[in-house]
Amino acid sequence: MADRRKVSSPKTGTRKASKAKTAKKKVARKTASRRTPARQQAGSSKSPKRWSQHVTDTSDALDLKHGVFKLRDPKEIAISLKRSAEHSTRRKAGAYRSALSMLTFYINRAGKNLPKTQLGRLERAKAELKHQFGRA
């Protein structure tokens, strides 16, 4: 039996191959640009790794007692936050709102690194803070 396959000319064969190569190159360029970190695109040379520490240190919200979130008693945490919020002259919102936002900020920024026991303690401190301000 005779071979009935369609034989294409060398020109069309190379043209199809070059289109396929070009398409692959375009895809490769797009994914490569997506993989570059955002800070390199923005052109900043400073690492954004510890921005939450910078916010904690330079925030105008409250002057917190050192190690307040490491205290063992949720009531002590709430009392310390309340005292700091009421004595602060730099806060922009009310004392309750500032104290609660600092506590929430700490919980959110710690994320998965926060041990379950300390997370529970800080959540109880939130409830105690509401009680201290007469909101519960």
Describe the structure.
- The longest helix has 26 residues, at 10-35.
- It contains 6 helices and no strands.
- It has helices at residues 10-35, 38-42, 51-58, 74-87, 95-110, 116-132.
- Helix 4 crosses helix 5, helix 4 (74-87) packs across helix 6 (116-132) and helix 5 packs antiparallel against helix 6.
- With 136 residues, it is an all-alpha fold.
SSE order and pairing:
Blueprint: H1 10-35, H2 38-42, H3 51-58, H4 74-87, H5 95-110, H6 116-132
Provide the helix percentage. Answer: 55-70%
**What value does the Rg take, in angstroms?**
30 Å
Structural class: mainly alpha
Regions with little confidence, pLDDT below 50 for 5+ residues? none
- Apparent shape: elongated
Give the SSE order as H and E letters.
Answer: HHHHHH
Number of E strands: 0
How many angstroms does the end-to-end distance come to? 92 Å
Please indicate the percent range of residues in DSSP E strands (runs of 2 or more).
Answer: under 5%
What's the helix count?
6
Oligomeric state as shown? single chain
Mean pLDDT equals: 76
Largest sheet: none
